Amino acid sequence: MRHGAFGRVVRVVIVMVTLAVGPSSVADEPTAEPGDVLVKVGEAAIRQPELESFLHRARRGRPPIDPQQNPVEIAAAVEQLVNERLLRNAIARERVVVDPQAVEAAVEQLRKQIDSGAGARLDTALRQAGSDEATLRRQIEFDLAVTALIAPRVDAASLAAAFDRHRRELDGTRVRVSHIVLRPDLGRGDEALPAAFRKAADIRAAITRGDVTFAEAAARHSVGPSRHRDGDLGLLPRKGEINDAFARAAFALGLGDVSQPVATPFGVHLLTVTAIEPGTATPESLRPQIQQLAAQEAVKQLVAELRRTTPITYSPGVPRLGPVSQAGEALPAPTAAPGPAAAE
Residue 267 region, left (φ>0) first, then alpha (ψ -120 to 50), else beta? Predict the structure, then answer.
């Protein structure tokens, strides 16, 4: 199997995610009672011990999940296991074989990256992630097999399309953002966040109808200090300075558009873009990032196709995500501390 530059880029990305998130890395189905079956993917079963093992690695020392309190996290984990099983089935059908030397090369590359840090070692990092080298090798073998499976889909046309879709995220573009931030009334308990979303939706409707300008609405409703300057936060990059959900929403807007309500740890926001400063980076200089995005999109597309053509049966009581989320991202990591801009 040939990997080339594309394979090397994807390999490093996937291996680092393996340590950070802790995918299931299950080579064979665990032994369990029939009642432990959570989902049937074709003829293969995903069982309770597999989910528990996945969650243990993914949470890495955080308290165990209470299924009653965290059904979304449970559901996200189940969907990731379903997606992995679909890909493993496809790998078997296509008879994809991974060169053991490629696996060892990836392990050694990762070892050099980690062992060169300040006292860090691969075995320590794996142990802290609840894993070991045997599990890591199985995961790398799976990741390289997926890389081979999607390689025909990551061609020049898909790379160009990925750059067009993500140009503003990649090329250094900055957008000038104004926002309105509402603080949920915590005294309302479970109703606090929905009430804030409803109020934000009403404000947005008034702005889009022309009853009030965004600046007027910011002065009237926003609780952040930026309300004194029409909600303006200045020019912002896609990454590094603000909460990611906030940045994603901002960079999805066209000039003058008003976003739907967006939740961050600071509250519920409405955003508008008042200026766009184009970036200057070229596709050639961004090739590794574009390859990574194109590969991620190819995997999502393949998983979506496999979901349409494979019978998937969930046992009663298993938490479910909606159909949009099922093509499923990895289990969310803990929210990073957002930058200061979103609080203003």
Answer: left
